[in-house]
């Protein structure tokens, strides 16, 4: 019998040498070691588990988060980790938080000493040689950098080398000087907004996030968003609630009586929390799994709903049809009626506008047709409130008791201004809003009229109109109906006497939105859907709203995900589950929101020194700056299914309009430096804002987005830390390589022909490649991002630094702590960015000094700027409809004075604005003079320099303590103060929610002992008072605090011009994009010489968390190792693919080479390539182009939905990571085939 062999002769020989270094006996197969005699026999075992110390730390990887770990250290070496078990109690009547952790987290210490560890500073060799030579010639490092980037041939040489090896070791001093010099030069030559930073998910390690963010904001550079870029941001959340993904903690899943996992694979993506889902079944909870494949969570569900990918909106619409029919029309359910009158916009009045389009006015009945219009507001009517403050933002209802129009408290118009004090609440008083005008059929002014409603489920994907009747009445000169009446029409729920095209019953498949209609779309049997809808509604009645839908990436990563979400959120809201423990919508995201958000925001974005910050939506940033807009081979109207609202425009036209109206941010902002504009204004003797407006009106100044290929409008420097942009999140990865980095790529897409190009964007024939001058990455491991970077800096791991860790999924704060000092030459992110800031400040003395900077900021949510667009009517100053007025019809224009030589001093001390101006978070003001004095005593005081007399913030622990002292969730005094300030506006009692903890202050030292529960705070909408589990909107429901929307209620109807024009005023089913029509891709299922065409999805991975762990030896061993694509056995058979074959997936965006996993768990027509499989492990050269295969995002690209760039209107107003276009990527299709040659080369 042959002896077992190891990987190969070399490794076998190495292992075999073990016998020369031990007294033990090595077995013949090299697998065991035996010691004989006394205690020596188990000494190797005792030594293995011996340790010198145990240190508490955690992982910052944006999973569920908040798993506390014991890190064991022996002789200064990390040996292993194990789960902590000392979490706060969840309560006596429920399971506890522990055990927490998963195999991925348990494998993390492998990275500390792994072959992929970044141990030293690296620079691309060709660039370093140039920099050394230039510095030797010129002496000044800033001039040296200038001499390189201003020489086209030199710049081309080092940019073309990106991604092709050649990184060489350097010293910290040299690399910091190079990075600082590049920043100084770029600020001086182009302006600070040509620099950008990207670091995602601050909650997972906020001190590390703040390290670079604080430096960049101090110099005036924008931070790029992450939540929208990852497509984890559901735009439906701000659209409906005026809040972003405020969802229950995982422990509240236990409280649900009915739980639907909809597109969320809980055991895989939320492994430490999955026990609540499985345990709750033993107390009677029913669990559904909605998934197209036999996913991990399906095994734990009571019932599997197999919905076709991307069609979840149709499924939700049909469930809504059943509930609206049987629980709102066939009967009145007091629980539903009371809830919707008070907490939703269903009773609010909507105007109906007569349709004058040819062919629509006269229907089959000869009746006139109307279309849904605007919210009827106090300012429209001849009533006393017409002249009240903000009357244009006070929507009205019909009072069922008086049959008169009434203006209920709580709308946006009451939130601001003197007249609103004490009235911003949901107390209806004596008003009894009429949910439907159908009840007033005997009224003399009652009419039954037909409205035209859109449907998008057509054969060619183009919009069609359906006519359905609604009850209506005249209010003044306007014909109106209620939101509920429009909803019933939208959902096809017929009522006697109403005209129009109605389904005959649940089994009528001819028209939306019946159970039978959805069956051919989703594949879900109509009978099953009908039963489940009834179960959902009845559970809400029986339990008082304890029904929960846990939404996930399976529903959220689509182009039309906002419509999918809105349709699903109808189910949770009309049944009264929102704002209940055990109810509402939960979400799959782990750490997108940081609990101590107030202190974090002010410190991370340097709001203690300068306001406002520069914040940028990352999706739009890369859509423009990687030139992906040039590959839009369609118009905005075509991608919107022919609604006509955007006829003659490109998506880029709409983005440019959004920018100039102040709806969405855009950096670089103008085609001139923001520093130069301030200088020019001073020379002209004008205020900077007035000067900029005059220059824009004359046309002498333009927004950079209108000419993005001009060299003065390029991004110049990008810094990445805690991020793997080019190995994980870069939708359209190959476009990044081509246009941003100027290196090898696999783009084969055609650019837009002349008739498809945007009208208002400069379109040069030649497209630049290599726009970016410097890409710097801080990381502890080698990734695609480091391989494409110009500078790579070695970062400390999570077991080598102090930091905090929080999540919206759990109500506690805990800490990172160094088990060992950063090894080799690695540094913590805080120390690295301090070094850069110090060198930058030194170089700035001669090159920059003190400058004024004109900052253009979009119109923000939770400020009066959200009232800039009455009625949501779009008026563009560029066309002369209105005058350009900063803060109303265009961006806010502010001036920041920056002493660039004092950046380091400012970075390491807390600035005076905290005491002079105070803090403001989600519209709530705070006075923090007390906290600043406490921090002076705790951390010490700066002596001399810009921060003289201010609290020190020199160490990472100082930063963490500043976050905690300046956040209500960790400071009971601040939380109580904040609630008292909110009370002045609401007139209701709130501060008692925090009063029980008014004297509590969580410090960093507290978090080192064990995870510490947070305090109920105005920063969030849920209450944890008395030890209850966190659930959002409980304060809104229980304390009548309004939602941050136009009506102050949960809002189904959106009346902005663009929403109306797109046919999305109400939830509507919109299918996945037709990539054949838009881009000429093969139709799904088509077979040709390139393989079979399939839908291409990138769900989360079982053996990694994003790109983390997928390169870890333990996870590689548990998985197949390297890149894989899952496909159905049916599709595989069509093109002769067998399990584990090498395959190539190719579309216009790029090429992927991977092994096939052929499985019957996959539905026909769909493949999975798990996010985020980097290209570092086992990725061969492709047959397609003889270059290394790409990452999962090499087959995707950015597609911007116009409704996501609306701004300046109520809840549809910008804030960082609150709203904006998403980096969606699930509508994509690809061809997949078996490689001809299975003997791959690397």
Shape: globular
Number of strands: 39
Structural class: alpha/beta
CA-atom Rg in angstroms: 30 Å
Largest sheet: 6 strands, mixed
* Percent range of helical residues: 25-40%
Low-confidence stretches: none
The N- and C-terminal alpha carbons lie at a distance of 35 Å
Strand order of the largest sheet: 7-6-25-24-23-8
The total count of helices amounts to 40
Mean pLDDT: 95
Strand content: 15-25%
Q: Would you give an account of this structure?
A:
With 1242 residues, the protein is an alpha/beta fold. Helix content is 28%, strand content 15%. It has 40 helices and 39 strands. The strands form eleven sheets. It has a six-stranded mixed beta sheet with strand order 7-6-25-24-23-8. A six-stranded mixed β-barrel has the order 34-38-35-37-36-39. It has a five-stranded parallel beta sheet with strand order 12-11-10-20-21. Strand 15 (397-399) and strand 16 form a beta hairpin. Helix 5 (141-149) packs across helix 7. The two termini are 35 Å apart. The model has no long low-confidence stretch (mean pLDDT 95).
What is this structure, in a nutshell?
By secondary structure, this protein is an alpha/beta fold.
Could you list some keywords that capture this structure?
six-stranded mixed beta sheet, alpha/beta, globular, 1242 residues, 40 helices, six-stranded mixed β-barrel
Give the topology:
Blueprint: H1 9-16, E1 25-26, E2 33-34, H2 43-49, E3 53-57, E4 69-74, E5 77-83, H3 103-106, E6 122-124, H4 125-138, H5 141-149, H6 152-160, E7 167-169, H7 172-189, E8 195-198, H8 206-219, E9 223-224, H9 236-241, E10 258-262, H10 266-269, H11 274-280, E11 286-290, E12 303-305, H12 312-329, H13 334-343, E13 349-354, E14 369-375, E15 397-399, E16 404-406, H14 412-415, E17 446-455, E18 464-475, E19 478-482, H15 483-490, H16 515-522, H17 526-543, E20 547-551, H18 553-556, H19 561-574, E21 584-587, H20 597-604, E22 615-616, H21 618-625, H22 636-639, H23 651-660, H24 674-683, H25 688-698, E23 717-721, H26 733-741, E24 774-779, H27 784-788, E25 791-794, E26 803-807, E27 810-816, H28 829-847, E28 850-857, E29 892-899, H29 903-907, H30 913-916, E30 919-921, E31 924-926, H31 929-939, H32 956-965, H33 972-986, H34 992-995, H35 1004-1009, E32 1012-1013, H36 1034-1039, H37 1057-1061, H38 1075-1079, E33 1087-1088, E34 1091-1097, H39 1113-1118, E35 1124-1127, H40 1129-1134, E36 1142-1147, E37 1150-1158, E38 1166-1168, E39 1229-1234
Parallel strand pairs: 8-23, 9-22, 10-11, 10-20, 11-12, 14-17, 20-21, 23-24, 24-25, 34-38, 35-37
Antiparallel strand pairs: 1-2, 3-4, 4-5, 6-7, 6-25, 13-14, 13-19, 15-16, 17-18, 18-19, 26-27, 27-32, 28-29, 30-31, 33-34, 34-39, 35-38, 36-37, 36-39
Helix pairs in contact: 4-5, 5-7, 7-28, 8-28, 12-16, 12-17, 12-19, 16-17, 20-32, 24-25, 31-32
């Amino acid at each position: 019998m042959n002896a077992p062999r190891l990987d190969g002769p070399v490794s076998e020989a190495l292992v075999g040498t073990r016998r020369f270094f031990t007294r033990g006996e090595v077995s013949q197969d090299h697998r065991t070691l035996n010691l004989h005699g006394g205690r020596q026999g188990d000494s190797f075992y005792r030594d293995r588990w011996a340790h010198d110390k145990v240190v508490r730390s955690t992982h910052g990887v944006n999973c569920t988060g908040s798993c506390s770990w014991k890190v064991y250290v022996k002789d200064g070496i990390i040996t292993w980790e194990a789960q902590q078990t000392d979490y706060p109690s969840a309560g006596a009547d429920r399971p506890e938080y522990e055990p927490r952790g998963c195999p991925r987290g348990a494998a993390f210490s492998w990275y500390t000493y792994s072959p992929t560890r970044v141990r030293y500073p690296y620079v691309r060799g060709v660039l370093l040689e140039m920099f050394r030579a230039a510095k030797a010639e010129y002496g000044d490092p800033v001039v040296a950098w200038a001499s390189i980037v201003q020489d086209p041939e030199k710049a081309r040489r080092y940019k073309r080398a990106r991604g092709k090896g050649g990184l060489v070791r350097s010293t910290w001093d040299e690399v910091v000087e190079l990075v600082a010099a590049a920043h100084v030069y770029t600020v001086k030559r182009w302006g600070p907004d040509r620099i950008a930073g990207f670091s995602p998910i601050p909650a997972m390690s906020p001190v590390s996030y703040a390290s670079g963010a604080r430096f960049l904001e101090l110099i005036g550079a924008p931070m790029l968003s992450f939540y929208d870029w990852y497509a984890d941001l559901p735009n439906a959340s701000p659209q409906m609630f005026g809040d972003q993904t405020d969802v229950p903690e995982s422990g509240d899943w236990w409280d649900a009586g009915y739980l639907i996992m909809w597109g969320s694979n809980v055991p895989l993506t939320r492994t430490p929390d999955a026990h609540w889902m499985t345990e709750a079944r033993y107390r009677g909870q029913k669990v559904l799994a909605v998934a197209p494949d036999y996913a991990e969570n399906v095994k734990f569900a009571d019932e599997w709903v197999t919905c076709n990918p991307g069609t979840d909106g149709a499924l939700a619409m049909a469930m809504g049809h059943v509930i609206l029919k049987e629980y709102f029309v066939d009967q009145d359910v007091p629980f539903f009626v009371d809830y919707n009158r008070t907490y939703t916009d269903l009773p609010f009045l909507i105007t109906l506008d007569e349709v004058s389009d040819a062919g629509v006015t006269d229907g089959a009945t000869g009746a006139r047709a109307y279309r849904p219009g605007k919210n009827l507001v106090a300012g429209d009517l001849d009533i006393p409130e017409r002249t009240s403050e903000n009357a244009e933002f006070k929507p009205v209802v019909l009072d069922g008791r008086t049959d008169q129009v009434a203006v209920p408290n709580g709308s946006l118009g009451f939130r601001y201004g003197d007249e609103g004090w004490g009235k911003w609440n949901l107390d209806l008083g004596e008003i009894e809003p009429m949910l439907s005008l159908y009840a007033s059929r005997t009224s003399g002014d009652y009419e039954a009229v037909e409205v035209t409603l859109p449907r998008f489920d057509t054969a060619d994907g183009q919009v069609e109109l359906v006519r359905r009747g609604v009850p209506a009445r005249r209010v003044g000169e306007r014909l109106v109906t209620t939101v509920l009446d429009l909803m019933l029409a939208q959902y096809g729920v017929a009522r006697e006497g109403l005209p129009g095209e109605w389904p005959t019953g649940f089994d009528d498949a001819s028209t939306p939105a019946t159970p039978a209609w959805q069956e051919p779309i989703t594949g879900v049997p109509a009978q099953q859907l009908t039963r489940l809808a009834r179960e959902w509604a009845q559970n809400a009645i029986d339990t008082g709203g304890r029904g929960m839908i846990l939404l996930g990436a399976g529903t959220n990563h689509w182009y039309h995900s906002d419509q999918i979400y809105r349709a699903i959120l109808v189910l949770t809201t009309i049944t009264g589950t929102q704002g209940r423990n055990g109810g509402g919508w939960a979400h799959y995201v782990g750490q997108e929101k940081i609990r101590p958000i107030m202190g974090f925001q002010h410190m991370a974005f340097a709001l203690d020194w300068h306001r406002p910050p520069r914040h940028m939506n990352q999706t739009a940033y890369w859509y423009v700056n990687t030139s992906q807009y040039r590959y839009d081979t369609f118009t905005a109207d075509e991608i919107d299914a022919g609604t006509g609202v955007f006829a003659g425009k490109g998506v880029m036209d709409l983005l440019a309009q959004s920018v100039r109206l102040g709806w969405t941010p855009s950096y670089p902002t103008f085609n001139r430096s923001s520093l130069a504009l301030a200088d020019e204004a001073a020379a002209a003797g004008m205020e900077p804002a007035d000067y900029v407006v005059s220059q824009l009106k004359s046309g002498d100044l333009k927004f950079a987005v209108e000419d993005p290929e001009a060299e003065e409008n390029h991004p110049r420097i990008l810094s990445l830390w805690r991020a793997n942009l080019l190995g994980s999140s870069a939708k359209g990865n190959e476009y990044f390589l081509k246009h941003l980095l100027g290196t090898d790529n696999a783009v084969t897409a055609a650019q837009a022909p002349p008739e498809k190009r945007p009208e208002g964007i400069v379109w040069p024939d030649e497209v630049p490649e290599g726009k970016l001058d410097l890409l710097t990455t801080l990381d502890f491991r080698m990734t695609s991002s480091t391989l494409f970077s110009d500078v790579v800096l070695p970062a400390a791991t999570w077991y080598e630094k102090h930091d905090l860790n929080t999540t919206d999924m759990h109500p506690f704060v805990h800490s990172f702590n160094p088990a060992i000092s950063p090894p080799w030459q690695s540094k913590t992110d805080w120390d690295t960015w301090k070094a850069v800031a110090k060198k930058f400040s030194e170089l700035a003395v001669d090159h920059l000094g003190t400058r004024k900077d004109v900052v253009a900021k979009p119109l923000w949510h939770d400020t009066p700027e959200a009232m800039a667009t009455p009625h949501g009517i779009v008026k563009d100053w560029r066309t002369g409809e209105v005058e350009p007025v900063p803060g109303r019809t265009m961006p806010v224009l502010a001036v920041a004075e920056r002493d660039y030589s004092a950046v380091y001093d400012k970075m390491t001390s807390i600035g005076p604005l905290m005491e002079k101006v105070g803090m403001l978070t989600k519209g709530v003001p705070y006075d923090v003079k007390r906290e600043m004095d406490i921090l002076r005593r705790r951390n010490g005081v700066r002596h001399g320099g810009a921060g003289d007399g201010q609290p020190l913030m020199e160490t990472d622990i100082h930063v963490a303590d500043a976050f905690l002292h300046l956040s209500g969730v960790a400071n009971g005094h601040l939380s109580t103060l904040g609630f008292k300030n909110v009370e002045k506006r609401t007139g209701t009692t709130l501060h008692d929610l925090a009063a029980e903890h008014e004297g509590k202050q969580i410090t960093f030292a507290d978090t080192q002992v064990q995870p510490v529960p947070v305090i109920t705070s105005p920063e969030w909408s849920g209450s944890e008072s008395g030890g209850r589990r966190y659930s959002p909107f409980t304060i809104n429901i229980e304390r009548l605090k309004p939602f941050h929307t136009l009506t102050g209620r949960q809002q189904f109807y959106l009346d902005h011009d663009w929403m109306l024009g797109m046919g999305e005023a109400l939830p509507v089913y919109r299918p996945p994009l037709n990539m054949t029509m838009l881009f000429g891709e093969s139709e799904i299922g088509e077979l040709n010489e390139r393989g079979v065409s399939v839908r291409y999805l990138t769900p989360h991975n079982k053996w990694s968390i994003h790109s983390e762990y997928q390169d870890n030896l333990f996870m590689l061993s548990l998985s197949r190792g390297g890149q894989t694509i899952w496909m159905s056995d049916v599709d595989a058979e069509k093109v002769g693919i067998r399990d584990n074959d090498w395959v190539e997936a190719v579309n216009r965006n790029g090429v992927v080479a991977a092994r096939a996993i052929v499985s019957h768990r996959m539905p026909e027509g769909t493949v999975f390539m798990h996010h985020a499989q980097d290209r570092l492990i086992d990725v061969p050269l492709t047959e397609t182009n003889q270059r290394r295969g790409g990452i999962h995002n090499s087959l995707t690209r950015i597609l911007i939905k116009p409704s996501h760039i609306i701004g300046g209107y109520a809840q549809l107003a910008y804030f960082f990571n609150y709203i904006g276009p998403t980096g969606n990527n699930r509508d994509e299709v690809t061809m997949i085939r078996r490689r001809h040659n299975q003997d791959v080369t690397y």
